[in-house]
Design goal:
It is a single chain. By secondary structure, the chain is an all-alpha fold. It has one domain. Helices cover 86% and strands 0% of the residues. It is built from five helices and no strands. The chain is globular.
C-alpha cells in the first residue's frame, strides 16, 4: 500500500542523502511522482518535506561527530532557504512545464558530474 511505498522512498533515498547526497531532492521528486502518482508540482513540494527530514537526520549525525563546518554551513543554509523560497514561488507560478524542464536539466548535469567523477 501507500505507506510501504512512502517508507521505501524515505528509507532508500534518506540513506542515499545521508551517505552521498547529490541529487537526492530530484530523486525524491521522481519517486513521489512515479510511485505515488503525484503531479510534478505537488511531487516537488512533497519532496521538500522528505528532503528536509533526510537533511536533518544527516546534519545531526555529522554535527554530533564534530564534522560540521559551521562557518560555511550556516551562511550557505540561509542562502539556500532564500533561493529555495524564490524557486518554489516560481515553480508554483509557472507550473509543471518548468518543473519538468528543470528536473531533466538537473538530472543530466548530475549524471555528467557523477560519470566524470567516478567513471572517467
Amino acid at each position: 500500500g501507500l505507506w510501504w511505498r512512502v517508507s521505501a522512498i524515505g528509507l532508500s533515498l534518506g540513506f542515499y542523502e545521508g551517505f552521498f547526497g547529490p541529487g537526492a531532492g530530484s530523486f525524491f521528486l521522481i519517486g513521489i511522482h512515479l510511485l505515488l502518482k503525484a503531479g510534478l508540482v505537488k511531487a516537488s513540494g512533497t519532496a521538500k518535506a522528505f528532503n528536509i527530514a533526510a537533511n536533518l537526520g544527516a546534519v545531526t549525525t555529522f554535527a554530533s561527530a564534530g564534522t560540521l563546518y559551521y562557518s560555511l554551513a550556516l551562511p550557505c543554509a540561509v542562502a539556500s532557504i532564500l533561493g529555495n523560497r524564490l524557486g518554489a514561488i516560481y515553480a508554483v507560478k509557472i507550473g509543471p512545464t518548468l518543473v519538468r524542464s528543470m528536473l531533466y536539466f538537473v538530472l543530466v548535469m548530475l549524471l555528467i558530474s557523477l560519470i566524470t567523477r567516478f567513471v572517467i
